[in-house]
Amino acid sequence: VSVVASAVVGVSVVASAVVGVSVVASAMVGFSVVASEVVRVFLVASSVVGVSIVVSAVVAVSVVASAVVGVSVLASAMVGVSVVTSALVGVSVVASAMVGFSVVASEVVGISVVVSGAVRFFVVASVVVGISAVAIPVVIVSVVTSA
To answer: Which helix (H) or strand (E) holds 88?
Structure first.
């Protein structure tokens, strides 16, 4: 009886040991599953962070590109204004030159009129003097003849 009882106790101890090992093994499997889940979550989180960084970089590049385009548009506008201003200055210079030419032309026309007037007056005066020079001897001859 004692031997049988010892054998039963031995089996019981072994069975308890097996159960203990099974519990420990289950705990290890559970820990492994949890650890795997933690690793997976960490990888997913890292991936999300990585995507977020890439998206932020893309947004930053887009903002910079927009700024560059804006600067380019502004520069083009400034160049356009400069061209228009240069054109306006050019038109102003040409207009000033035309006004100057017009003034000079008017002066030339005025001088021409004055000179023409002076020549005409000189010719008329010369004709009058010539007529006078002819008329005076005729008058004298007429007076002498009458006398």
So the answer is: helix 2-146
CA angle, 123 then 126 then 130, to 5°: 140
Confidence of residue 116 (pLDDT cuts 50, 70, 90): confident
Question: What's CA 91's distance to the chain center, in Å?
Answer: 25
End-to-end CA distance of the chain: 214
Q: How far apart are CA 70 and CA 78, in angstroms?
A: 12
DSSP element (H, E) containing 147: none
Residues in the chain: 147
* Structural tokens at position 109: 């026309």
How many contiguous H segments (helices) and E segments (strands) does the chain have?
Answer: 1, 0
Q: CA nearest 33: which of 25, 46, 17?
A: 25
pLDDT computed for residue 112 by the predictor: 87
- Does residue 147 have a pLDDT over 80? no
Place of tokens 């599953």: 33
Which pLDDT belongs to residue 19?
92
